[in-house]
# Entry
Amino acid sequence: MAAPLLFLLLLSFSLSSSLIQASSNSICSSHNFTNNKSFTQCTDLPHLSSSLHWTYDSSGSLSIAFIAPVSSPNGWIAWALNPKMDSMIGAQALIAFKQTDGSMAVKTYNIVSYESIKESPISYETSDLSAESGSDGDLRLFATIKIGTDVQSLNQIYQVGESVTNGVPDRHELKSDNLASKGIFNLGETLVPESAPGADSKSSSASDGLGEVTRSLSVLASFFVIFLVQFLMVV
# Structure
């Protein structure tokens, strides 16, 4: 009787430890931003080792930070919304790259062709466009986009490329990760009051939330282990 229960004890402890470790390994929760930038939500995207941070406020503004690594100093990153489908064609894109003078730029592109792109206005009102290079070789794109209120989900497309020629991003690779980097961006219940405490640099970041989850899992695991130990002592 004691042997199976001991096995159950060890198994439950192992599973609890795995859950805690997994919750601590989120890439997006480890990001720190300059200029007191802060976001209420973050997620690790399934492709291109990329992450997205965002805040969707009650005025209908979506503030985002898209982060992805590039293998070349002359590389670029892009994040886009497509109001009609999860496709590159029709995407309203923001592309960040380093200009010839060494400064970072974010430009807008209405994608109408697979062959080439041209800087152009997009269907969303944008502001606070900026970009920076991270110390670990990634690029970071920041923007605020007016998407309207009560939006639950959007089609998002994201991408990376290895070069820019004469101020124009060159075509990206056609590897499976590049072709799959799109999907539904679920805003869900992420709406927060625009001027509520916590919407500025003093707000609770996604990493704070993750830390709270980790602590809760740790406490639950501890109680469960104590219960099983006491049960074993009784039997």
